[in-house]
Structure formats: C-alpha cells, structure tokens
Design brief:
39% of the residues lie in helices and 20% in strands. It is built from 16 helices and 14 strands. It has helices at 33-50, 71-81, 97-100, 105-111, 125-130, 137-149, 168-180, 198-201, 209-225, 244-250, 282-287, 302-310, 319-326, 336-342, 355-359, 361-368, and strands at residues 5-10, 12-13, 25-26, 56-63, 85-95, 115-121, 155-161, 185-190, 229-232, 235-237, 255-258, 263-267, 273-277, 293-297. The strands form three sheets. The protein has a nine-stranded mixed beta sheet, sandwiched between helices. The chain has a three-stranded antiparallel beta sheet with strand order 12-13-14, with no helix packed on it. Helix 2 links the parallel strand 4 and strand 5 (85-95).
Length: 369
C-alpha cells in the first residue's frame, strides 16, 4: 500500500491578522468558493493517481479560515478520496470562533470532519483586539460548546503567549481558561514577528525575555498538572490524543498538498524524495490546479530535513523510522549523532533529545543542517 496524508489549503479569511504570514487573503465580493472547490477536486484526483496513493490516514483542512466554506464542500472533497480514506482516519478542520458561533457544526460532523482546531489565540478581549481577531472570548466558549453538542470528541485550542503588553499572569490566565474547557489538545506557542507582516512593519510592545521565560515555565507546569503531555515543542495533549496529521509531518511521512500555495512531500518508487508546491495566488491556482512545482531533496539534505522535524518531538523518532523514511543508513547521521550523544544532548537508543538537549533544541537541529 502507498500511504500519504492530505493537506488541503482554503485561503480566505474575513480579514488578514497583522501577525499572520500564512497564505491567506481577505474575503471580497465574488470570492469563487464553488470554483475553488471544483479546482481542489481536480487537483486531488490528479495527485492521488499520479502518486499512486492507496491509503489516506489523515486529512487536514487548513487556511485561511476553512470554516468559511459550507459542509457540502468538505463532503465533496472527502467523497473524492473515496475508499482510500482509512476507516479510522483523523480529519481535521481549522475554524475561527468568529465564523462558527452560528455555523452548522453538526453539518461538518456529518460531512466527515471528526476533529476541529479552534484558533482561539487568547481569552483576553483586549489582547484579541490587538491581534486583529474578529472574535471575543465568549465566541470561543460558545463555539467550543456547540462543537461538543454536535458530537465532536477531539478538539484542539490554538493559543499564543508573549502577546502585545501581556504579562505572566495574563498568559497563564489564558491557558487556565483553555484548560477549563477540557479540550483533548492544546497548541501553545509564542507569538513571533514574521517578515512581511503588519506586526513586522510596525512592531507592537512585546514582553521581554525574562517575562517570556516565566510564562513558559509557568505554562508547562500548569499544563502538566492538568494532565496534558508535552509531546512536541508547542503541542500538548491528553494521553492518546496527539495530532496524528502533525506527527506524520514531524516523522517525515508522505503527504499531498492540495490548494493554493500548498506544499507536499513524497518518496517516489525510485527512492527519490520530492517536495511539491502549488501556485501561491488563488487566481493562478484556479487557472491550472494540476500544475505542480517539484524539487528533489538531495541525499545530503535528507538527514537535516528529517532531524529538523523529528527532534521537535519529545520522543523523537526511532533509527528504523529514519532509515525507512529517508532510504539512508543510520551511519549517514554521523559524526554529529555520536558527538551529541557524548555531550548528553541526544539519547543513544533513538533520535530524541535528552532533557538538557531539548532546552538547546535549535543548536541540536542546526548541527544537522
């Protein structure tokens, strides 16, 4: 069986947030929702055939704001996958609380979505306004409750810390509010100023390093006490509720990228690993949805690409996984691996950082790049 996960990009938002560097575009009159879904179906069918994919274990609808699309769009795309979609597949949709508060969440459930990732970002209304979000804290709680009522038993909340003028108490209060809702998964990560964003052009006042460190340590302790395992740098879950789609990325699994600006990665039958990319602008993608830019990953690049992702996981990856995913012998990681083991930064039994190494993760990864 040839197995690959699937990422589908839905690029429109109600408006662009000032910190966002994703391929997202504000809604305008005449946004071609129906035509875009037609293009996604054409693109998906072509890639499933071109890469000979027999099994799809996870699907992730990202954006943008996928919840702007109606349930029928997701049903159509999942029907296109057909029998290739595994019976226990994890099917995630990103959602903005501001677009789902009155949305047909039970319709998404019936369409085949079984996991929702809510972009909460903060429970502080002042911080949400500073981030340019269209929702308030009440909308987060309302959307979350509606998702539970619609039958969703696998929910994620995205939260950021280090927000403009945020202090340690504010960051931990946000986290406590998220934990109180009892989601299965929490993604908690620091706001960073990405190039070409509004925040990069006009930086807001952000907390200093000492406050950020206090936020991090307090947050890790709070999450641990609440029963959330840190299984990746910024991902925390109840036991058994880790995001399977993301774990596939982090362990160098194959995935198809469908939609404007979507990226994919596939290891061909000849052993060559190829990265794919679709046209960035929706109008260019719509003109030829099957057009795909491909670039081979060289043998010299493979160890670094694998370790860049695998070391983000607290348990890393097995040496056997490295060999299976890259087609390279474990000796291709030398002499860096032995040097890191001797420095007690890397575990000897698998490709995973020690506790000390995890605190120096950027350095560890850079050694392989």
């Amino acid at each position: 069986m040839n197995e690959a996960s699937l990422y589908v990009h839905l690029p429109w938002c109600v408006r662009k947030c000032p910190y966002c560097d994703f391929n997202s575009h504000p809604l305008k009159a005449g946004t071609p929702f129906d035509g875009y879904v037609d293009a996604l179906v054409e693109d998906l069918m072509a890639q499933l055939e071109d890469y000979g994919v027999d099994r799809v274990p996870t699907v992730f609808f990202g954006g943008g704001t996928p919840s702007l699309f109606p349930p029928e769009a997701f049903a159509r795309l999942l029907e296109t996958i057909g029998g290739r979609l595994m019976a226990d597949a994890e099917v995630t949709m990103e959602a903005n609380p501001g677009t789902t508060e009155h949305g047909p969440l039970n319709g998404y459930r019936q369409a085949g979505i079984n996991r929702i990732s809510f972009g909460a970002q903060s429970f502080d209304d002042e911080r949400l306004r500073a981030l340019g979000r269209i929702h308030d804290s009440r909308a987060i709680v309302s959307s979350f409750d509606l998702a539970r009522a619609a039958g969703f038993h696998n929910l994620n909340l995205d939260l950021m810390y280090g927000l403009p003028e945020q202090d340690r108490l504010g960051a931990l209060s946000d986290l406590a509010a998220a934990i109180a809702l009892e989601p299965e998964h929490i993604s908690w990560y620091q706001l960073t100023l990405e190039p070409k964003t509004e925040f990069a052009r006009r930086p807001p006042p952000l907390p200093g390093d000492l406050i950020l460190d206090a936020m991090e340590q307090g947050g890790y302790e709070l999450l641990a006490r609440a029963g959330y395992d840190r299984y990746e740098v910024s991902a925390f879950s109840r036991p058994g509720a880790g995001a399977r789609h993301n774990v596939n990325y982090w362990t160098f699994g194959d995935y198809l990228g469908v939609g404007a600006g979507a990226h994919g990665k596939h290891r061909r039958m000849d052993g060559c690993t190829v990265r794919t990319r679709k046209a960035h602008q929706p109008r260019l993608y719509l003109s030829d949805p099957t057009q795909t830019e491909q670039a081979a990953v060289t043998t010299e690049q493979l160890p670094g690409e694998f370790m860049l992702n695998a070391l983000r996981l607290t348990e890393g990856a097995s040496l056997e996984r490295f060999e299976a995913a890259t087609g390279l012998p474990r000796s291709s990681l030398e002499p860096v691996r032995t040097r890191q083991i001797q420095a007690e930064l890397l575990r000897e039994d698998r490709l995973a950082a020690t506790q000390r190494g995890y605190r120096l993760l950027d350095t560890l990864i850079a050694d392989y790049l």
